[in-house]
């Protein structure tokens, strides 16, 4: 890399189901203002901007130029990056590339969504092939439900095992003033919530949220000036596998994209024992079963051990590898911002700015993005300049 | 003709995406639209830093990236800065052709409002003065087309 890169500032809205008080641009600006303030700069200090959201969610094609009142992109290089659920992480990785290339020193990454403005399921099926796949798996839930069913069958995991993930994340959200869902829940609440598509119940899945997130990436030299404790990018990796739903039937192989992306990132970051070497993980877990299965792909534990690993408290705030101190995706899901929030929250932990959700000592943090047809993005952040 | 077309029927799939949208106009946009609907007034807003008066109003001046603050009541009259006369009809157009899309700089504003002129198209030229014509109160619903169009004075 031409330049080392760090995150020096983050900003996010106070996420809610509906934001009738603001337009999309106005909502984006709230996050941008907070990110700039967090690192003590103004929009004039920003060299370039990368912005993303979900295609068709607000019916705006040219989000890069439409958004400038919110992004501050007037007369600046700005581009839209959109990759489905992984959009937020892709935006972060693109901003990282911008700075790492040596072409820009301070780059703003923005993710946003106003889910309240459309029909999420109507919009999301446009991700799938119109001739072969669009009649099926409408929306996000059915494909995840078939993945969960296969996992339960293979390893004997139960609905209660998954429910523990929702209880953990939703209760963590109580420490995050920005989180959308702020009501504590119990295992019984999850188990008695309405069944959507077996084995996924209402409280097993993420909500629909209006919100935005902005993150400032800065080059070595500049980063130390802008932040007392910058969150250095140690690695990033992207793996997109299938685009045909039926090709992902080998669920027994795990979430292959996440396994490969994380392996690459661990290698780049010199991590050999993730659950011990990482101090926190902000994971894009759109539903509870991911919280037991995908941590196996991340090598936090062995195959089939995810449920036990969570049950024993290893992913709690005081556990071996705390997962989602922010409350995660199950508490807040402004989709185009969701994966960027994982990156932002991981960097907040490294920078020590987490307030009530701050962990005592964070040297290395993992953030993931998930989307499309079982795609994964991974970023590893650290306190050491690297 | 491609050879394969002699023995393969090239099948197609018809489709459309049907996603219902509800966009929030937000506080600033809603106040402007309420002014049209309830009072037949056209409000703009002035940027605190550069002084530009925008209509439709917006919360942020994109050039300064600061809040626009002050509301300004604009005249219902203005000057045509540019226009085109539309001679073909299309379902997405707001009215039947012929009509004009015109950039109208309202008195007191620094930018133009894009709107419609439906009458006296032969008199239309850059610099002519126009006046807003509002729809009947019962037809107004808080939409930019609560102004039915502009007419040449
Ligand atoms: Zn201004």
UniProtKB/TrEMBL annotation, chain A:
Residues 255-380 form the Thiolase C-terminal domain. Residues 1-20 are annotated as: Disordered. Pfam families: Thiolase_C_1, Thiolase_N. The keyword Membrane does not apply. Residues 5-218 form the Thiolase N-terminal domain. InterPro entries: Thiolase, Thiolase-like, Thiolase_C_2, Thiolase_N. This is Acetyl-CoA C-acetyltransferase. Keywords: Transferase. GO terms for molecular function: acetyl-CoA C-acyltransferase activity.
TrEMBL record, chain B:
InterPro entries: ChsH2_C, ChsH2_Znr, NA-bd_OB-fold, Thioester_dehydratase-like. SUPFAM superfamilies: Nucleic acid-binding proteins (SSF50249). Residues 41-67 form the ChsH2 rubredoxin-like zinc ribbon domain. Signal peptide: none annotated. Coiled coil: none annotated. Residues 71-135 form the ChsH2 C-terminal OB-fold domain. This is DUF35 domain-containing protein. It comes from Desulfatibacillum alkenivorans DSM 16219.
